[in-house]
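Fold it.
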Amino acid sequence: MENRKIALVTGGNKGIGREIVRGLLRVGCKVYLGAREAAKGQQAVTELAAEGEVRFLQVDLTNQASLDAAAAQLQREEGQLDILVNNAGINAAGDGLASVAAVRSVAQVLETNFLGTLAVTQAFLPLVRQAAAGRIVNVSSPLASLTLSGQHDWGLLGYSASKAALNMLTVQLAYELRDTAIKVNSANPGYTATDLNGFAGTDTPAQGAAEAIRLALLPADGPTGTSSSATGPLPW
């Protein structure tokens, strides 16, 4: 299909990521479903095949060789990337209040959610630059907000810090790319029922995916360097 947008969604085999993949397929994108485990990624691709053209791409945020291989594959097969959705992320046992959070747990979450996402973005940015008007969406969280964190006892220092750092990536990369057609924004799903919270969230994964999908499909006059949820902008 001529002019079909090429998208990559990391952590696309389950939860919010899977629904982002589904939503992009439904508007005609060709989507590469990124996942660390091949079996789970391939299973998700099989289950989503009826929605549109979807392919599995092995992406391990903490393995640079995996990222280099994935970027090289996408370069060979597509030559560009119109949409990069950095959705993959973890939490860790031992994370908690600042006074008691296990330092190793905090480091583990930061390594994946921030450093891993940074590595993914750097690996695929050359392909995004080759698209006519690239879109990069970082799936963040209201827990990342310094303003809101000062008003609530959320008790997840590592996770909150990792998403706050991710928001810093959003604003700095958006500024760096300000003279290009690329837009970089943070999407905040809200309290979504996924395995990260033991499925205790009040929103469905489809609801949680909606803002990321909207930002991935922004028109030319859309914003860049923002943080928003389905209800509107969020404070940094």
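The chain has a mean pLDDT of 94.
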